[in-house]
Amino acid sequence: AQTVTQSQPEMSVQEAETVTLSCTYDTSESDYYLFWYKQPPSRQMILVIRQEAYKQQNATENRFSVNFQKAAKSFSLKISDSQLGDAAMYFCAYRYYNQGGKLIFGQGTELSVKP
Amino acid sequence: GAGVSQTPSNKVTEKGKYVELRCDPISGHTALYWYRQSLGQGPEFLIYFQGTGAADDSGLPNDRFFAVRPEGSVSTLKIQRTERGDSAVYLCASSTHRGETQYFGPGTRLLVL
C-alpha cells in the first residue's frame, strides 16, 4: 500500500527567508501525481503545487518550488521569501495516475512564520 | 465560479443520533470525494463518486457510514448511530472527469457528545 510520510511536525521560518518542508512516500507504481496542499485555520485545503511523476523537471509556482527525487521517493517543498500568510499546515499527498484516484496524505507539517 | 461548498459548517450531535453532511461540488465536476480528518492528522479517504455511482467506497469505516449522489451533483454523507470517535472534520472535494487535481470545500466539523 502507498504511504506518505512527513517527518517534520513543526517548522518555523523568519519572514522573507527560505524554508524547506520534507516528504517521502512509498509506492510500487511508476505513474502518479504528488501534491502539496496548504490548510490554514479556516480548514480549506488549498492546492499549492502539483508534480507529475513522469516529468523530470521540478514544478514551480511563484515562490513555491519542489525538489522531486523519484528514485529516492522524496518530494520536498521549498518556500522562498516567506510571508506571514504562508503560516499554515502543509500536507504532502500522493495519487495514483488512474482516473479518479484517491489522495493519500501525510501527517502534515505546521509552518509558523516569524515577523 | 463558485468553489466546493459544504453544509453545515459545524454540527454538534449526541451519541447515537443520525447526521447528514452535504457537499455541493464545483459545477461540471463529475468526480466527488469524501475525506475524514481527525485532529492533528492528514485527511483519510472515505468514498469516491464518478457521476451518480460510488466508484470506490473502500475507505468507509463501517456500515454506519453511507453516502449518496442521486443526480450526479450534490452528495450527502450519512452517519447512523454516531459515536464519539466519529468526531472529526469531514472534507469534500471535486474534480473533472480526468481528475488530476481535487478541489476541496471548507469542511464540516462534526462533534459527537
Structure write-up:
- The complex is a heterodimer of chains A (115) and B (113).
- Chain A is mainly β and 115 residues long.
- Chain A has strands spanning 3-5, 10-14, 19-21, 24-26, 32-39, 46-52, 60-61, 64-69, 74-79, 88-96, 103-105, 109-114.
- The radius of gyration of chain A is 14 Å and the shape is globular.
- Chain A has no helices and twelve strands.
- In chain A, strands 2, 5, 6, 10, 11 and 12 form a six-stranded mixed sheet that branches. In chain A, strands 3-9-8-7 form a four-stranded antiparallel sheet, with no helix packed on it.
- Helix content of chain A is 0%, strand content 53%.
- The N and C termini of chain A lie far apart (41 Å).
- Chain B is mainly β and 113 residues long.
- Helix content of chain B is 0%, strand content 49%.
- Chain B has no helices and eleven strands.
- Chain B has strands at 5-7, 10-13, 19-24, 31-37, 44-50, 53-56, 65-68, 75-79, 88-95, 103-104, 108-112.
- In chain B, strands 2, 4, 5, 6, 9, 10 and 11 form a seven-stranded mixed sheet that branches.
- The N and C termini of chain B lie far apart (37 Å).
- The model of chain B has no long low-confidence stretch (mean pLDDT 94).
